[in-house]
Amino acid sequence: NKYAAQKLKVGEEYLFWGKVDLNFFGAEMTSPEIESPQGNNIIRPIYPQTAGINSKALEKLVRTALTALKDDLAHDPLPCDLVESQKLMPYGQAISSIHFPKNFEVLEEARKRLIFEELLFLQLGLLVMRGREESSTGAVISRDFTDEFAKLLPFEMTGAQKRCVKEGVKDMARPHPMSRLLQGDVGSGKTAVAAALVYNCIKNSFQAALMAPTEILAGQHHKTFSKFLADKGVNIALLTGSTSAAEKRRIKSGLSSGEINLVVGTHALIQEDVLFDKLGLVITDEQHRFGVGQRAKLGAKGLNPHVYVMSATPIPRTMALFIYGDLDISVLDELPPGRQKVATYAVDTALRARALNYVKKHLDKGLQGYIICPLVEEGESELVAATRYASDLSEGFFADYKVGLLHGKMKAKDKDAVMASFASGETDLLVSTTVVEVGVDVPNAAIMVIEHAERFGLSQLHQLRGRIGRGEHESTCILISDAQNEEAKRRLDIMAKTNNGFLIAEEDLKNRGPGDFFGSRQHGLPELKIADMLNDIDMLRLTQTLAKEIVSADPTLSQTQNRGLKAAVNELFDESGIHSFN
């Protein structure tokens, strides 16, 4: 560019920005950006770009926008005394400085201000959803029946289970509705804890409802709860999308009359025509697969019933504070006796034949196994598709065994038929996608092979692995991957070294970041734009404390100094379809 060259003077100093290429003559830079080191343009913003517009053009547009919005940016949503007490940069200055800071100190102050307000707005909204300071429940538990329930079990609860039951019962005895998360690793016995709370609720003359994300998982819970409670006079019903019309009418009638004590189901439970007589306890399983709004819909069917959330996905406490900031947390950190540690090995495709032979040895002993594939149909990519793989195995390597196929695109009744066949032992080997990640309990399954293991997150691999080792048999998980990059190898090595779901979840959060931790952000809370769950945990704790103080002094944010807060919180939560302050 001869015009750019003419502007350069020998002996002067310049800043060059571009890609440096090394060649025989030395180093060169093709069409670099050139700036003088004087002036305020030393720190330059870099924006996400789209076709036809570059970062420099966006920079000019942002400068124009900031000039046009100068008067609007003078209105600070935070109360003046809060800005002063926390030594925060004023709002307008922070917005301007995050784009065009004079130096790195100013940039850091702008970031601090914007992170603070984003987390404060989030915590204020969560407090409103929780509503503990002003709401009361119509389902206060007056008697504790835990000891009576414990005698019904064919095993003794672990110390962790007893502690979590005690925490839940204590919450339900208070005049405010319980809002609690039960976190537990795969196989830690969450269902027994939930059953204890359900039993307490029903014995105190209230109804309970449990909502699961899939029909398979709902059916599993219905079966387990029936085993615990059905012969003790507890009337239990299963309500899902595939329940027959006649059965649905019977169940809805039984719920509204109070005849049915416990209903287990899927999203079908939150339909408008599902009414309860005295709903006292609402339990949701794998809550991140629903969303805050769906949990609230089920809770609205009673007089502020107690809310209990179960998650078999171990979540680092930092992440739990964000996703479940409106809940207290109970942790099951002890596995029941008899749970097997699953031996895990990472191998490449050269050893696939040996791995499949190892599977065959297990099947010959009368045990069962899984083979997990990341895709369903051919054409999605070059990876092995479950449909084709199942067909190849059943006609070739495992021609003498019964091979089943399970994936998310199947109809609910077909999924149930496949799982029933596997659970009964009729099917020897189940080829599946991640639909078996939660809820399938087959004690006879002792071997799992996961194809293209690098395609799964660590937490997801841990969930899949949790489908085996649930009985008395030694169990093995084989991760097959040809991934050559060091990060993928390190992740698979972590899986081979530990069975601790919480350690694995911490690693997963570090590797993938909070935005991708659950895949497609299914939990339903507002997406953070600048705050970071890994690095801003101290700020999160500070804003939680301040939010409680603000709501305690002004529950509806109606005072003059809090009106900016109220508008900002409502705007943040409206983006997620969640109503906050009225």
Structure, explained:
- With 582 residues, this protein is an alpha/beta fold.
- It contains 21 helices and 17 strands.
- The strands form 4 sheets. A 7-stranded parallel β-sheet has the order 7-8-6-9-10-5-11, with helices on both faces.
- About 2% of the residues have low confidence.
Show the helix and strand layout:
Elements: H1 2-7, E1 15-17, E2 20-23, E3 26-29, E4 33-35, H2 55-68, H3 70-73, H4 80-85, H5 91-99, H6 104-130, H7 146-150, H8 159-172, E5 179-184, H9 190-203, E6 207-211, H10 215-229, E7 236-239, H11 245-257, E8 262-265, E9 279-285, H12 292-299, E10 306-311, H13 317-323, E11 328-332, E12 343-347, H14 352-364, E13 368-372, H15 386-395, E14 403-406, H16 412-423, E15 429-432, E16 445-450, H17 458-465, E17 476-480, H18 486-497, H19 501-512, H20 537-553, H21 563-574
Parallel strand pairs: 5-10, 5-11, 6-8, 6-9, 7-8, 9-10, 12-17, 13-15, 13-16, 14-15, 16-17
Antiparallel strand pairs: 1-4, 2-3
